[in-house]
C-alpha cells in the first residue's frame, strides 16, 4: 500500500521521491504478508473431486491381529457409501471408497497411504485403523494436504494440533479419546467401589500408552499410587507373567489398555489362578466379540464406552432396520466396529454436503470447523468441531458384560 504522504508536482504528477517511497511501502507490505500467521496458510488438496464423484480412502486391518475390528469397520463404511449414493450422493456427487489392507503393520500403512494419495488421488482419508498405523502415515497425508478424518484410534495425536503448524489443522476425530475416557471410567470405578490398589496392563504402543497416561493422570489427581504397571507386546497371546505379577501385587482393579483378544486372555488367566479381581477395559474392549468369544471368562468385565451397543432383539426404529440391512448385506450380525465405520462415512458425507456444490478442500475444512452438529441414529453424543477444537466429544459411559452382552452401568461421565 502506498504511503499516505504521497508528494505531487505542480501539475499533480508524483515526484521521484514520492515514487520511491511508494515502492518502499509496497515492498514492506509484501514482507508483512509473508509474516501472517501460519494457520492462514493450510494447504488442503482438491484431488479426488470431479463433477460426478468424491474419492475417499481408508486403510484397515483385514488380515492381521485386529481384523476383528478392520473387517466390520470396512463393511460399515461400504454400507454407508451405498446408502449415501442411493440417495443421490453428496450434492449430486457419488462417493467412491478405496480400501487398503494394512495388516495392522505401520510400514504397510505407509505404503497404503502413499498409494491412495499418489495413484488413487483421494480427497480425504476416512476411518483409518489403529494408533501405530495411523501415526506412521499421518505426516504423509498432512504434507499432501489430505484431510485425516475420524481415524479408528482415539490417541491424542489424531486431534490435538499446534496452531503454528498449519497442516495439523487437517486432523479431526469423533471417537472417545483414550486419555479422557480412561480417566472418566477410572474415576467412576474408584469412587464407586472404593478400590485401593489399582493396576494396569497395557499394549506397548501409542494406543496403550494413551490409556496408561489416562490411568496415571487420574490416579495422580486422586492422590493414589498404582499397585502395579505391566505391559505386553502388540500381538501377544500369553499373559501369564503379567497376570501373575498383578496378583502378587494384590491389585483390586485391573485397567486393560487392550483391544479384543487380550482382555479374554488376561481374564482367562486370572480364572486359572483363582484370582477374583475387577477388570476395566479401555474403549476398544467394548465390542460384541469380547463376551461372544470370551463367554464365562469375561463375565463382569467393565469398559469405557461411547454409546450403548444395539442388539437385534431389543433395537427399535431406524437402528433395528439398520441391523437387519447389515445382516442381509454381509451375512453376519452388525457390531460396534461396523457402527463406527458406518458413522465415519456418514459424518464425512454430512460435512461434505454442508461444504456446498462447489466442493473444495478449503470449503470442506470450513464446514468441519463451522460448529454444525452431526447427529447419528445410534444416540451417540453429537459430533461438533470448531476452529480450535477438532475432537467431537469426551462424554463417557461405563458398561459391563452381564449374561453375554454389554449392559449400561453409568452414562454422562467426565473427570
From TrEMBL:
Residues annotated as domain Leucine-binding protein: 53-404
Protein keywords: Amino-acid transport, Signal, Transport
UniProt-listed InterPro entries: Leu-bd, Leu_Ile_Val-bd, Peripla_BP_I
CDD domains hit by this protein: PBP1_ABC_ligand_binding-like
Matching Gene3D superfamilies: 3.40.50.2300
Family per record: Belongs to the leucine-binding protein family.
Protein name: ABC transporter substrate-binding protein
Amino acid at each position: 500500500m502506498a504511503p499516505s504522504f504521497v508528494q505531487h508536482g505542480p501539475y499533480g504528477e508524483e515526484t521521484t521521491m514520492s515514487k520511491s517511497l511508494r515502492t518502499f511501502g509496497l515492498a514492506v507490505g509484501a514482507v508483512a504478508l509473508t509474516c501472517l500467521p501460519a494457520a492462514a496458510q493450510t494447504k488442503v488438496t482438491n484431488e479426488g473431486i470431479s463433477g460426478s464423484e468424491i474419492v475417499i480412502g481408508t486403510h484397515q486391518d483385514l488380515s492381521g491381529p485386529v481384523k476383528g475390528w478392520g473387517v466390520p469397520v470396512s463393511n460399515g463404511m461400504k454400507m454407508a457409501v451405498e446408502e449415501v449414493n442411493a440417495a443421490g450422493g453428496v450434492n449430486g456427487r457419488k462417493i467412491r471408497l478405496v480400501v487398503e489392507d494394512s495388516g495392522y503393520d505401520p510400514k504397510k500403512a505407509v505404503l497404503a497411504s502413499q498409494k491412495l494419495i499418489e495413484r488413487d488421488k483421494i480427497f480425504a482419508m476416512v476411518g483409518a485403523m489403529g494408533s501405530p498405523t495411523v501415526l506412521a502415515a499421518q505426516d504423509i497425508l498432512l504434507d499432501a494436504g489430505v484431510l485425516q478424518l475420524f481415524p479408528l484410534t482415539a490417541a491424542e495425536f489424531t486431534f490435538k494440533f499446534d496452531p503454528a503448524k498449519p497442516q495439523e489443522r487437517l486432523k479431526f476425530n469423533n471417537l472417545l479419546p483414550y486419555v479422557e475416557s480412561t480417566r472418566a471410567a477410572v474415576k467412576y470405578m474408584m469412587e464407586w467401589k472404593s478400590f485401593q490398589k489399582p493396576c494396569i496392563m497395557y499394549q506397548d504402543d501409542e494406543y496403550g500408552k494413551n490409556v496408561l497416561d489416562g490411568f496415571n493422570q487420574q490416579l495422580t489427581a486422586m492422590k493414589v499410587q498404582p499397585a502395579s504397571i505391566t505391559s505386553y507386546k502388540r500381538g501377544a497371546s500369553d499373559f501369564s507373567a503379567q497376570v501373575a505379577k498383578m496378583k502378587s501385587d494384590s491389585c483390586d482393579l485391573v485397567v486393560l489398555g487392550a483391544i479384543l483378544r487380550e482382555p479374554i486372555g488376561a481374564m482367562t488367566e486370572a480364572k486359572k489362578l483363582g484370582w477374583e479381581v475387577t477388570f476395566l477395559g479401555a474403549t476398544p474392549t467394548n465390542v460384541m466379540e469380547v463376551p461372544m468369544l470370551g463367554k464365562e471368562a469375561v463375565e463382569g468385565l467393565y469398559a469405557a464406552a461411547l454409546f450403548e451397543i444395539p442388539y437385534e432383539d431389543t433395537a427399535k426404529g431406524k437402528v433395528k432396520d439398520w441391523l437387519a440391512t447389515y445382516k442381509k448385506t454381509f451375512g453376519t450380525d452388525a457390531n460396534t466396529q461396523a457402527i463406527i465405520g458406518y458413522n465415519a462415512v456418514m459424518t464425512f458425507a454430512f460435512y461434505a454436503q454442508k461444504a456446498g456444490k462447489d466442493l473444495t478442500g478449503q470449503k470442506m475444512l470450513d464446514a468441519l470447523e463451522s460448529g454444525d452438529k452431526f447427529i447419528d441414529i445410534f444416540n451417540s453424543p453429537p459430533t461438533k468441531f470448531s476452529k480450535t477444537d477438532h475432537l467431537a466429544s469426551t462424554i463417557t459411559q461405563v458398561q459391563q458384560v452381564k449374561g453375554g452382552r454389554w449392559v449400561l452401568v453409568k452414562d454422562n461421565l467426565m473427570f
